[in-house]
Amino acid sequence: MLRLGLFLGLAIATKWNAAYASLFIGLDRAGSRRTRLSRTRGATWRDEGVQAHLFWVPAGLVVLPALVYSGGVRAVLLTGHDVGQFIELQHQIFYYHTHLHATHAYQSRWWSGR
Q1: Residues 6+ apart with CB under 8 A from 17
Q2: CB-based burial of residue 33 (10 Å sphere; 0-12 exposed, 13-18 middle, 19+ buried)?
Q3: CA 82 remoteness from chain centre
Q4: What is the pLDDT of residues 11-51, one digit of tens each?
Q5: Residue 65: exposure state from Cβ atoms within 10 A (0-12, 13-18, ≥19)
Q6: Alpha helices by DSSP H, 59-99
Q7: Is 35 within 8 Å of 90 (Cβ atoms)?
Q8: Degrees, nearest 5: CA angle 27-109-13
Q9: pTM
Protein backbone atom coordinates (compact mmCIF):
# COMPACT_ATOMS: atom_id res chain seq x y z
CA MET A 1 0.00 0.00 0.00
CA LEU A 2 2.89 2.35 0.72
CA ARG A 3 4.50 1.75 -2.65
CA LEU A 4 1.15 2.47 -4.30
CA GLY A 5 0.86 5.68 -2.26
CA LEU A 6 4.35 6.74 -3.31
CA PHE A 7 3.56 6.29 -7.00
CA LEU A 8 0.17 7.96 -6.67
CA GLY A 9 1.85 10.93 -4.97
CA LEU A 10 4.32 11.21 -7.84
CA ALA A 11 1.48 10.95 -10.34
CA ILE A 12 -0.54 13.66 -8.57
CA ALA A 13 2.52 15.90 -8.46
CA THR A 14 2.79 15.44 -12.22
CA LYS A 15 -0.88 15.77 -13.12
CA TRP A 16 -3.75 16.44 -10.74
CA ASN A 17 -6.03 14.00 -12.58
CA ALA A 18 -4.22 11.18 -10.79
CA ALA A 19 -6.11 12.16 -7.63
CA TYR A 20 -9.14 10.42 -9.14
CA ALA A 21 -7.14 7.21 -9.35
CA SER A 22 -6.31 7.50 -5.67
CA LEU A 23 -9.99 7.88 -4.83
CA PHE A 24 -11.10 4.90 -6.91
CA ILE A 25 -8.26 2.68 -5.70
CA GLY A 26 -9.14 3.58 -2.09
CA LEU A 27 -12.78 2.69 -2.67
CA ASP A 28 -11.71 -0.59 -4.26
CA ARG A 29 -9.43 -1.47 -1.34
CA ALA A 30 -12.13 -0.63 1.20
CA GLY A 31 -14.67 -2.68 -0.74
CA SER A 32 -12.37 -5.69 -1.05
CA ARG A 33 -11.83 -5.79 2.71
CA ARG A 34 -15.57 -5.53 3.33
CA THR A 35 -16.23 -8.38 0.91
CA ARG A 36 -13.67 -10.58 2.65
CA LEU A 37 -15.19 -9.73 6.02
CA SER A 38 -18.69 -10.63 4.88
CA ARG A 39 -17.42 -14.06 3.75
CA THR A 40 -15.60 -14.75 7.02
CA ARG A 41 -17.72 -15.85 9.93
CA GLY A 42 -17.20 -13.97 13.14
CA ALA A 43 -15.05 -11.22 11.66
CA THR A 44 -15.68 -7.88 13.34
CA TRP A 45 -14.27 -4.38 13.18
CA ARG A 46 -12.15 -5.32 16.20
CA ASP A 47 -10.34 -7.95 14.14
CA GLU A 48 -6.61 -7.24 13.93
CA GLY A 49 -6.56 -7.44 10.11
CA VAL A 50 -9.41 -4.95 9.87
CA GLN A 51 -7.66 -2.56 12.25
CA ALA A 52 -4.48 -2.72 10.16
CA HIS A 53 -6.47 -2.21 6.96
CA LEU A 54 -8.23 0.83 8.43
CA PHE A 55 -4.83 2.32 9.20
CA TRP A 56 -2.85 1.47 6.05
CA VAL A 57 -5.41 2.38 3.39
CA PRO A 58 -5.76 6.04 4.48
CA ALA A 59 -2.04 6.24 5.26
CA GLY A 60 -1.06 4.82 1.88
CA LEU A 61 -3.68 6.52 -0.27
CA VAL A 62 -4.17 9.90 1.43
CA VAL A 63 -1.32 10.83 3.76
CA LEU A 64 1.63 9.50 1.76
CA PRO A 65 0.54 10.95 -1.61
CA ALA A 66 0.00 14.33 0.11
CA LEU A 67 3.50 14.16 1.59
CA VAL A 68 5.04 13.16 -1.75
CA TYR A 69 3.16 15.97 -3.51
CA SER A 70 4.38 18.46 -0.90
CA GLY A 71 7.93 17.19 -1.26
CA GLY A 72 7.73 17.36 -5.02
CA VAL A 73 6.91 21.04 -4.98
CA ARG A 74 9.31 22.01 -2.25
CA ALA A 75 11.51 23.59 -4.91
CA VAL A 76 9.00 26.46 -4.97
CA LEU A 77 9.58 27.04 -1.28
CA LEU A 78 13.36 26.71 -1.60
CA THR A 79 13.50 29.49 -4.20
CA GLY A 80 12.41 32.11 -1.69
CA HIS A 81 8.63 31.86 -1.98
CA ASP A 82 6.43 31.39 1.06
CA VAL A 83 3.54 29.00 1.69
CA GLY A 84 0.96 31.69 0.83
CA GLN A 85 2.53 32.16 -2.59
CA PHE A 86 2.57 28.40 -3.11
CA ILE A 87 -1.15 28.18 -2.28
CA GLU A 88 -1.85 31.08 -4.65
CA LEU A 89 0.08 29.26 -7.37
CA GLN A 90 -2.13 26.19 -6.85
CA HIS A 91 -5.22 28.40 -7.14
CA GLN A 92 -3.92 29.92 -10.36
CA ILE A 93 -3.15 26.50 -11.84
CA PHE A 94 -6.66 25.30 -11.00
CA TYR A 95 -8.27 28.45 -12.38
CA TYR A 96 -6.26 28.28 -15.60
CA HIS A 97 -7.20 24.67 -16.31
CA THR A 98 -10.87 25.06 -15.40
CA HIS A 99 -11.27 28.12 -17.64
CA LEU A 100 -9.12 27.02 -20.59
CA HIS A 101 -11.08 26.86 -23.85
CA ALA A 102 -8.21 26.87 -26.34
CA THR A 103 -8.15 24.20 -29.01
CA HIS A 104 -5.42 22.78 -31.20
CA ALA A 105 -5.63 21.46 -34.74
CA TYR A 106 -3.92 18.22 -33.68
CA GLN A 107 -5.93 17.55 -30.53
CA SER A 108 -8.27 14.61 -30.06
CA ARG A 109 -11.25 14.24 -27.79
CA TRP A 110 -10.59 12.21 -24.64
CA TRP A 111 -13.29 9.70 -25.53
CA SER A 112 -12.03 9.03 -29.06
CA GLY A 113 -8.90 7.17 -27.97
CA ARG A 114 -6.81 8.73 -30.71
Answers
A1: none
A2: middle
A3: 24
A4: 888 888 888 887 888 778 766 655 555 555 555 656 666 66
A5: buried
A6: 64-72, 74-78, 83-98
A7: no
A8: 45
A9: 0.61
